[in-house]
Design goal:
By secondary structure, this protein is an alpha/beta fold. The protein folds into two domains: 181 residues, 3-Layer(aba) Sandwich (Rossmann fold); 54 residues, Helicase, Ruva Protein, domain 3, CATH 1.10.8. The chain is built from ten helices and nine strands. Strands 4-3-2-5-6-9-7 form a seven-stranded mixed sheet. α2 links the parallel β2 and β3. α4 runs parallel beside α6 and α7 crosses α10. The longest helix is centred in the C-terminal third of the chain and has 13 residues. The termini are far apart.
Length: 259
């Protein structure tokens, strides 16, 4: 495994602790899933245990050619199940015939982009187990009112139940990162769609947090419709996903028009 070098440009740090790997894979339930997609398997430390899970089809996506060669040489992964490419650039809809779970040690510098892409396929991805930078895990799982609460917190919490599972120290990686990591699990909630225009919901959340120091009446002033009085004097980080959904319903109507 030493011949595979972690590429700093990808923010990749390879997990080397087998017990942690087993614990991460054990956190994945994959109930009702036709398959599991592993992002960035590297040297296959998670892959080894995923292949032991009964009744699932495993596919992995790896951008690094050297790592892909290693995986082909050491694991029973036929070409259709080993995708060499960029997770952020490929279409996921044809990877599996039905719902699939996502798992991985996500590269730190693109972890937020990975979650935004998962949101695009939220109705096909009922579960995600990912190891990310501890700060990112805290932000995603944070309730309203915390300084770490932000755009990704609201958008993911609108569609998923999120659990911060456990913290992972620096020493279990090669090379060791300069920060701690954490494992989180996202499980799709019962809401098939929001009770508002979902495209507008995304826009409202992003607009509000891009001016997070402003009261919502000012931060969202560029959008049509009226911010309900009970929220007008609040800031973005004080509101839950449900409250942003309500605001979006109001902003989906012209000013002075009642719901």
């Amino acid at each position: 495994m030493n011949q595979i070098r972690a590429k700093k440009s990808l923010g990749q740090h390879f997990l080397k602790d087998q017990n942690i790997a087993r614990k991460i894979v054990g956190s994945l339930q994959a109930d009702g899933c036709t398959g599991v997609l592993e992002i960035g398997p590297g040297t296959g430390v998670l892959t080894r245990f995923l292949l032991e899970k009964p009744g699932i089809t495993l596919r992995v996506i790896e951008i690094d050619r050297e790592a892909s060669r290693y995986l082909r040489d050491h694991f029973p992964l036929p070409d259709p199940d080993l995708v060499e490419g960029d997770f952020l650039a490929i279409s996921l809809k044809d990877l599996f015939p039905g719902p699939f779970a996502v798992i991985g040690n996500f590269p730190y510098n693109i972890s937020s982009q990975i979650f935004f892409k998962i949101l695009e396929y939220r109705n096909q991805i009922p579960e995600v187990v990912g190891m990310v930078q501890k700060e990112v895990a805290e932000r995603i799982s944070s309730p309203p009112g915390n300084k770490t609460y932000g755009i990704l917190s609201v958008l993911l919490q609108a569609y998923y139940r999120i659990d911060y599972l456990f913290t992972v120290g620096e020493q279990v990686f090669s090379p060791p990162p300069k920060v701690k990591s954490a494992v989180i699990r996202l499980v799709r909630n019962e809401r098939k769609r929001l009770a508002c225009d979902e495209e507008l919901f995304f826009r409202v959340v992003k607009t509000a947090f891009n001016q997070r120091r402003k009261m919502l009446s000012n931060a969202l002033g560029s959008l049509s419709g009226n911010v309900p009085d009970e929220f007008a004097g609040k800031r973005a980080e004080q509101l839950s996903a449900d409250e942003f959904e309500l605001i979006t319903r109001c902003l989906g109507y012209p000013k002075n028009q009642e719901l």
